[in-house]
Every structure is written in C-alpha cells, then in structure tokens.
Amino acid sequence: MTRYLPLVRAALARRRARTVLTIGSVLIAFLLFALLMSVRQAFLGGIRAVGKRILITANVVSLVSPLPLADRTIIASVPGVRRVAYEVWFGGYYRRTGNFIFALAVDPPTFLAELRGELGLSPRARARWIADRRGVLVGNAIAQRFGWRVGEVIPLRSNVWRRTNGTNTWPVRVDGILRPSEKRYAQLALLHYHYLSETLAKNTGLSGKVSLYRVEIAHARDAAAVSRAIDARFANSPDPTRTSTARTFLLNFLDQIADIGTIVTAILAAVFFTMLLVTANTMARSVRERTAEFAVLRTLGYGPGRLFGLVVAEAALLVGAGAVLGLLLGLGLVAVLHGLLAAILPGLALPPSSFALGLALVVLFVLASSLVPYLQITRLAVADALRRE
Amino acid sequence: MTETAAQPSSEPLIRLERVSKSYRRGGETIQVLDRVDLAIPRGDFLALMAPSGSGKSTLLNLLGGLDRPDEGSILFDGVALESLGPRALTRWRATHVGFVFQLYHLLPVLSAARNVELPLLLQRLGRAERSRRVAAALSLVGFPDDRHTFRPTELSGGQQQRVAIARAIVTNPTVLLCDEPTGDLDRRAGDEILDLLVELNRRLDKTIVMVTHDPHAAERAHTLVRLEKGLVGEIRATSS
Ligand SMILES: Nc1ncnc2c1ncn2[C@@H]1O[C@H](COP(=O)(O)OP(=O)(O)OP(=O)(O)O)[C@@H](O)[C@H]1O
Ligand SMILES: [Mg+2]
Questions:
Q1: Are residues A349 and A377 in the same domain?
Q2: Are A369 and A270 in a shared domain?
Q3: pTM for the complete prediction?
Q4: Quick one: A113 and A235 in the same domain?
Q5: Strand order from edge to edge, sheet including B79-80
Q6: Is the CB of B25 under 6 A from ligand 1?
Q7: Res B236 pLDDT > 80
Q8: Residues A267 and A361 both lie in one domain
Q9: B236 Cα: distance to centroid of ligand 1 (angstroms)
Q10: Does residue B234 register a pLDDT over 70?
Q11: Distance (Å, rounded) from C-alpha A128 to C-alpha A176?
Q12: Percent of chain B scored above 70 by pLDDT?
C-alpha cells in the first residue's frame, strides 16, 4: 500500500495552505482535548480513589458554618460507625497570600488512623507529630516548593483565623514530610486542632467547633443508611447536619465551583464538531476539485473502492498528523502547566485513557469526513467528468 | 445478425453490434448513436472522423467501458462488455485499454515519471520493476531522459502528450483509444505524435482507435471511418 503514498502526499500538497490550515485546526482541537482532559483529571481523577467507607458530616447550612465538637460522641454512637475524625479549615499561606497552603487542623490520632497508609508517613514522624502539639506534617510538594526541612519552625499564617495575641501567624515545627502515592495529599499540611483552638481569639465563634467530621464506617454498603441515621440525630438540634460519602461530598464541592465534567465535555464537543466541519469541508472540496483527475484514474483502471481508499488515506494523514502534533504539544504544555500550577491544580496530567479516546476520535473523524467524498466517488460519471474539462 | 465490416476470414478484435446511445436533456432525448455496427480488426489503426457533437467521444467511451450502450453489444476479443460487472469492467480496462486525451489529463501534482507509473501501481510489481517499465515507456515515446522529474506544467504540449501516451502503453494494453490526440498541438508537434502512434501501431502491433477532426491526421491511419447522424457512414482504407 505504501506505493500509493506519493499519490496521497501529492494530493495533500496540491493546496498546501489549505492542508496546513486543516492540520492546524485539528491540532488545536487535539491540543484543547489534551488540556481539558488533564484539567478534568486534576479535578475528578483523585475522587475515584477516595475511600468508600468514609462519610463526611457537615453543617446543612454551608461548609463555612461549623458543627459543635460535642457532636463527635453522638456520631460515634450511631450503629455502623467505626471512628470519627474531625477537621477545621485553616486557610493557610506562607509569607504571601499567593503562597496558598491547603492546611487542616485535625485530631492527629483519629485522622491518621483513617488515612492509614495513604499519607506515606514514616512511623517515627508519625509518633513525633502526635506528641508535638505545635507540630505540622507537610506534603512533599509543599516541602519542596518552599525548601522546608524536618525540624524547621515555619510561621504559618491563616487567612481565616486570628490569634489571641492579635496576629494570624502560628509558628509550627515540621515534624514529618508526607510522601503519598496520591498527588492531592502532597499538597496537604496538617496541624493539631488543639493548638489552633487554644490560641484562637475568643470572638471567632470556633471555640468548641469543627468544620466537618470524617466518619469511618464498618461497611461501605451501609453508607446510605448510616448517613441517614447520623442526620436524623441532629435533625432537631440547632445545627442540623448533612452527611454524604466522601466521594459525593467532593463532587458536590467541585460542583459548587463548576461542573467540570459537563463543561469539559461541552467545550470538547463544540471544538470537535467545528473541527469535523473543517476537515469534512476540506475533503469534500478537495475531491470535488479533482473530479477530472479521479475520472482519469478511472480510465487507467482504478476502481471506485481504490479511489475511496486513497481519499480515506488522505483524510487519515490530515487528521492523524493534526492529532499527533496536537497531543504532543498538549503533553508538553500540560507538563509546563503542571509545574506552574502545582499548588492550585495538583495532579494535572493527561490520563492514559485519553490516548485511546483520541485514537477513537481520529477514526471517527476520518470516517465522517470521508462520507461526502464516498458519495462523490461512487457517483462519479467518468465520461461526463472528462467532457467537462 | 447484421452485416459488419469485418472480413469473414479473421475475427475482428472489437465488434460493435447495433450499438445505440442516447442522452436525455430536459424532456427530449438526443439519439447520439443509432444502431452502429462496426468491426475493428486486430492491429488496425483506425481514424474516426465526424463533425463536432456527432458522438465520437461517446463511441470511444463505450469502447473503453467508461459508459454503457443503451442497446446493442460490444464484443472485445470475444468478450461482451455488457456481460461484465463494474469490478470486472474496471479490471478489464486496466489490462486491455490505454486512453489518450486531447488535453493530456496528466495529474498536475505528479512528475512525468510518477504519472506514467500510475497504472502500474495497480499491479503487483516491485519498485525497481516499476521504474524500469516507466523508463522504457518514456524512452519508447521519445520523452527526454532529463525531464522525468518535471511536472506537467513544466513541459510543452507535445511532451505532455508523449507522457500521456507513455502512461497509456506502460501496461502494454491491447488497444489505444485516442480522443483527438493532436487537437491541442501545433502542426509540428502534432505530426510527431502521429509519427509516434504510427510507430506504436507498426512496431508493437497496437490496435489504435483515434478520433480526429483533422483530415491530415486521419490520413496517417489505415482505416478511416466517418460517423454521420449517429450512423457509421463511409469506411475506406487510407493511402498509408
Ligand atoms: N451526459 C450527457 N448528457 C447530455 N448530452 C450529452 C451527454 N454527453 C454527450 N452529450 C451529447 O451527445 C452528443 C455527442 O457528444 P460527443 O462528446 O460524443 O461528441 P463528439 O463527437 O466527441 O464532439 P466533439 O468533436 O466536439 O468532441 C453531443 O450533442 C453532446 O451534447
Ligand atoms: Mg469529443
């Protein structure tokens, strides 16, 4: 089949500018595809890995409204509940507010018990931190970003809380570095809840309160029932709760920012539809312009099937070249953005499944853009086409 | 059976039996060919002369299997073309027919050599064998060796027609169908092309059917056939 290659190449070289523009539009479509799939992965990729036996109990009003710490024992008494951890959103940053740090104030033993191996924490660091009320654990991405070392004391600041001494700076000692397998934990910093609550200014309204509870249950299949049972306990309290699985919670949380999945799909659909029109138009035009040439090839003994094969090869080269270039460029760009946006969008990477999806899209577009040429070729009246010259 | 022009002794290569072809335009029907009978012996060089619009190209297209008659039969070496399906007809054309057109119809994006190679791509031949045959065909038609990589637009009309003829004969077809091959050339270049066709007919024994307006060109053929009002009129042997 390679013997037809010069013919296919010559056909594409016929209108260089149009070929380049078409490849360019395919390239841009696939570049966007790579970027958006990476963004989607960054937002939703981690969620699949979220433990199925973790429920999140939060204030029904909103995430910023806290829940009483006293709820903890009530939740723990609900049948099916194994362990109850809690956390407070610290809103951390280092030096400048731009150096945002995803910091949580937690109850160390229960928090670590729930996440167990996922954090990649050495037993010694774990013990050191549990014993050190002013200690902090930081993900390796943060440690790397700011050059922090174990033993160093860091002035961690909060954009939410204020201390009794009027400042918003909490000096914390780095007790250990998390080396998690999952990227989102690499951006995490953990403080002691008690350090925060004891040093907090009295008028903050947080005393004796937490942002949310992380509830570990015995069996994943009981998630719905246990969630209902927990919420039922607080239905008539001053702070009613809403409990959901950690996965649902995360998805809802992201939904409040934006429905990433739908947005990505919608943009890609629009981009690819436009691209399909461009390629299909290019192919249809190019075949129409060459009607006489195809007629000549018919006189030389080329059948309609073979001519169609040549056109499909042309379309495959156009779309394939654009797709490969677009994906390569996308990979490069994602790598660069990954470095730049590490703090905001950890886990920005093109998931391997995108390549299979990309290939499927290529095949789809080649076939779709060969549709009109197929009709043009099979309906070609050779004698008339030659006369028309 | 109708009377045909073939000698009873040798079976003609091509035989047209009561071939009719009409076109519809709007409501009316134009009868272009009306029960044409014609026999073309193997090895003949036949010139077909007729006024413009009298169906010469139509007849040539029927002979080459590019179009099908409404009625009647075209027998080629004993095979009735109307009995062949589309695929078989395409294959038959690839082996037996070489077309030459007034406007050369070379692919503008391909070099001279690549144009000649086109019909060979349909055969199972290695690259080396293809180049060998391309070179042989181009040298046979007297195409200059140093122009093989030239595009059609970089060649004179006569050179382009030589390339087109090389492309038509490179597969060694049984018959050459030429539709006004000198129609777009000046007298000198036209004469050279005619010399070439005569040579191909004499030396390689190619059967040639050539449509022409030009009496001077028609003189070079063995047989002259006049087509009038959709019927074959006069048939006579030319002086050459
Ligand atoms: N597809 C078609 N539809 C309608 N009419 C057609 C079609 N093809 C050919 N004709 C008509 O058939 C007649 C014969 O056409 P043809 O091309 O065979 O003539 P010709 O003898 O080759 O003419 P010329 O010397 O000008 O090339 C013309 O009147 C032409 O208009
Ligand atoms: Mg004609």
A1: yes
A2: yes
A3: 0.73
A4: yes
A5: B28-40, B14-25, B71-76, B79-80
A6: yes
A7: no
A8: yes
A9: 25
A10: no
A11: 8
A12: 91
- Beta-bridged to residue A231, according to DSSP, are none
**For ligand 1, is residue A384 a contact (CB within 6 Å)?**
yes
Q: How far apart are CA A317 and CA A310, in angstroms?
A: 11
| Domain span holding position A188 | 61-239
Judge if A65 and A202 occupy the same domain: yes
Say whether both A42 and A67 belong to one domain: no
Q: What is the DSSP letter of A5?
A: H
CA–centroid distance, B59 to ligand 2, in Å, is: 9
The one-letter code for the residue type at B83 is: S
Q: Name the residue with tokens 């009995």.
A: B83
Kindly state whether residue A293 falls inside one of the protein's structural domains: yes
A to B CB pairs, distance under 8 Å: 73
Which residues does A375 contact at the CB level (< 8 Å), separation at least 6? none
Domain-embedded: residue A216: yes
Tell me if chain B has a CB within 8 Å of the CB of A14. Answer: yes
**Boundary-marking domain end, from A170, A205, A239:** A239
**C-alpha closest to that of A347 among A36, A122, A98, A39:** A39
- Verify that A276 and A213 share a domain, yes or no: no
For residues A131-143, b (16+ Cβ closer than 10 Å) or e, as one string?
ebeebbbbbbbbb
How many A from CA of B58 to the centre of ligand 1?
6
A54 found inside a domain = no
Last residue of a domain, one of A239, A271, A299: A239
- Kindly determine whether residue A298 and residue B122, on different chains, have CB atoms separated by under 8 Å: no
Which strands, in side-by-side order, build the sheet including B175-179? B97-101, B175-179, B207-212, B45-49, B223-228, B231-237
- Do residues A139 and A234 share a domain? yes
Is A254 part of any domain?
no
Query: What's the gap in Å between the CA of B183 and the closest CA on chain A?
Result: 14
Segments of chain A assigned E as strands: 54-59, 67-68, 81-89, 92-94, 96-106, 135-139, 153-158, 169-178, 188-192, 209-210, 212-217, 241-245
* Residue A195 identity (one-letter amino acid): Y
* CB of A210 closer than 8 Å to CB of A89: no
What ipTM goes with this model?
0.91
Number of separate domains in chain A: 2
Q: How many CA atoms, within 13 angstroms, populate the side-chain half-sphere of residue A235?
A: 7
Whether residue A250 contacts residue A50, with contact meaning beta carbons closer than 8 Å, is answered with yes
Interface-testing mutation among A286, A299, A302, with chain B (most B C-beta atoms within 10 A): A299
Structure confidence at residue B7 (pLDDT): 44
Contact between A4 and B121 using a beta-carbon 8 Å cutoff: yes
Q: What is the mean pLDDT of residues B164-180?
A: 96
